[in-house]
Amino acid sequence: RQLTQSKLKALQMQMEPHFLFNTLNAITSLVAQKRNDEAMKTLGHLNTILRTTLQRKAPEKVPFAEELRVIESYLAIQKVRFAGRLEVKIDATQEALDGLVPCFLLQPIVENAVQHGIAPMEEGGLIETCVKRVGDTLWMEVKDNGCGPNGSDTKGHGIGMQNIRERLAYFYPGAYEFAAVAPIGGGYEVTIQIPYERVTA
Length: 201
Fold this sequence. Notes:
By secondary structure, this protein is α+β, with helices and mostly antiparallel strands. Helices cover 52% and strands 22% of the residues. The strands form 2 sheets. The protein has a 5-stranded mixed beta sheet with strand order 2-4-5-7-6. It has a two-stranded antiparallel ribbon with strand order 1-3. β6 (177-181) and β7 form a beta hairpin. It starts with a helix and ends in a 6-residue tail after the last strand. Mean pLDDT is 84; it is low at 152-156.
C-alpha cells in the first residue's frame, strides 16, 4: 500500500509541473506583448491555483467545489491567452459541488481540451464542463468542439489520460467508468463516473 501511495504521489507531481510550465509560458507571452494588465490578472489566477495546490496533502480527495476553483482559474488564464477564441460553459449542481473527487482529476482533461482541441483553431473554440449527481454516482463530462486528438499538431493526450486512469483505479478499484471519445462531428468528449461521496462537516 505504501508503494501504491508513493506511485500516486509521483503521478500527481508529474501533472502539476506540466500545468505550471504551460501557465508560465502564457504569462511570458502576455508580458512580451506588453499586455501587462492581463498578465497581472493571470498571475492572480495562478496565485489562486498555487495556494490551493500547496495546501493539499497528496494524494487525497477534495470537494468538487475546490477542484472547480482550480479549473475556473485555469480557464480564466486561457481565456486571456486566446482572447475571443475561447468560450467556456460550466454547469455543476450543488450536490456535485459537495461531492468528493481525487484532486486534479478534471483539470488535466480541461488542459488537454485547450492545448490539443482549441489551440489549433482560428476561432470559435468552446469547452463545456458538466458535473452532476446521478443516483449514487457523480457524473462528470468535459467536451470541446476542437479538432480532436487526431487533428492536433501536438501530443500529450496519452500521459494525462493514463495518469487519470491509474488514479481512478487507485481510489475506486472496479467501481468507476472512464470514457474518452472523438465524435464523428468533431471535438473530444471525456466522461467519468465515480461513486458519490458527500463532504462531511
